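Batch manifest, entry 17 of 40.
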Amino acid sequence: NFDLQMEGSSVSDFLGSANVRDLDLVYKGKAFDFDSLVLESKPEINGSRSVLLYSDILNVSLDGKFDLAQIVPAFKNVLYSQHPQWAKKLGIEALEKGVTNEQKFRFKINIKDTKDYLELVNVKDLRFSYISMEGNASLKENFFETAITVDSSFYKDITLGRLDVFSDNKNQLGGLDINLQNLFANDRLYEPL
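Output type: structure tokens
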């Protein structure tokens, strides 16, 4: 079932909502079921906007002054300009042209359980349970910060318990703090790390 009530000419200016229920997707012969998927975009005061995506698997909110189509290219430009060593490792070889860095927003992403849905982006044998990511960015000022918590991570026969990651960046200075509660591998529990 599809219920679309949208207006606008592109991803940059769309408003309204899209609601998809009982979506069955087959990828490489495997069925993936989504009970519901809702996307909403609405204007807020002072030229800000709010974009919400929620489903039985994940919830995403993005609030602030931003052009949805330019967030990723603008972020790549910040990495290229401020952290060329990381840009090179990520395959970012040049500044993207025609991109505005006037992106200032808060975001929140909650994922209940990835189950086998990561196979849709060609990632196998990896599963995350209860991920919370939130942060904010002001790309014109070369500032962003992110806090991530993952209750459990599974890769083949390795289990990571409670992973917390905090990162921040202001101009060319960045910080990264990683805490891992425990690790289970080769039939042994390593705690604390």
